[in-house]
């Protein structure tokens, strides 16, 4: 694999001083209020303010009542089709050749792909191929490479270590004071898990969170080329760091970590630098943001629905189903995008070749035709497993079992300690149209 040279040298201390993507974007718009994007269409759910203010649910409910598919002619990300119904999303996901995921056609997020004529003079074409943003057959080979890391056998092997780290984290929480659950629990547990999956140097594991935040925020493009250049530089430095790990591991015996699996896979050991970087972004964001935000979402939801918290406390046998219901309720990734590969008809609408089709999983998981009282957390919900938070079809999340295991162990260890967690201060949600989550969740721990 070709080497990736970082654009500049950066000491580890400089990494830790760098602002998060969220902080950088917030500062940019505070200093440049006229740069805030406009959303003229009332159903343009690409707008991030409805998620930061947690008022997206009635918008999608109104859309579902009018039909499963809607055309949004204008948005900061270009025109797109919104698929908002549960069955409709399954239908689109079941046709991966007709509705492409390939980065060559635009990839998996609502972010508009620049056509050649739209690239400004001196601006770099920047594509990040990754296996979730590939079509068959290449998708199949690369997915099969990493899938062995997430088999039931591997989950059983990792459970004891996950349980030990979770217990130690919970036992170390502040007593009798308010603290940020995101900072003290959700980030350490998921970052530690990523470090183990990559066999990443433990002392540098906080870099994984930093890289994840900068890579997973699709709205950075709205802040102009300067912010995009910053992100690209950070991603190159991430790739250069992993390049060193790759070089080291290529001299060692095959291991069970993801880097070793890539090195010894014919489907992935000849990746281009951009493809290597893309798959790192996929595995880091997929393994970090989703589980991290559900760990916070569980706490917030149980506090919002105290009757369900009492059920959790009285009936620990509900925990496996509670995990599925909390994933449905939280839906950590709001959407995936597909691109139509040929003219077709979909739910009575004419979709043109090249049209962008956005699948809103958060809407599907609140579809009243599938989930009764969908806006309510219900730990006894019989069909909670029908959620689409992990996607559907060939692109269903390869790490779903690991996410479920981490969440189940968290709830089991909380119950074993008779922990009751109250929201007791600020709640700040992620301002983004892709990741659903929390920046801050101030809580206090008591016991039942």
Automatic annotation (TrEMBL):
PROSITE patterns: CYTOCHROME_P450 (PS00086). It holds the Pfam family p450. This is Cytochrome P450. Residues 1-22 are annotated as: Disordered. Keywords: Heme, Iron, Metal-binding, Monooxygenase, Oxidoreductase. Cytochromes P450 are a group of heme-thiolate monooxygenases. They oxidize a variety of structurally unrelated compounds, including steroids, fatty acids, and xenobiotics. SUPFAM superfamilies: Cytochrome P450. Signal peptide: none annotated. InterPro entries: Cyt_P450, Cyt_P450_B, Cyt_P450_CS, Cyt_P450_sf. Belongs to the cytochrome P450 family. One of its GO terms (molecular function) is oxidoreductase activity, acting on paired donors, with incorporation or reduction of molecular oxygen. It comes from Parerythrobacter jejuensis.
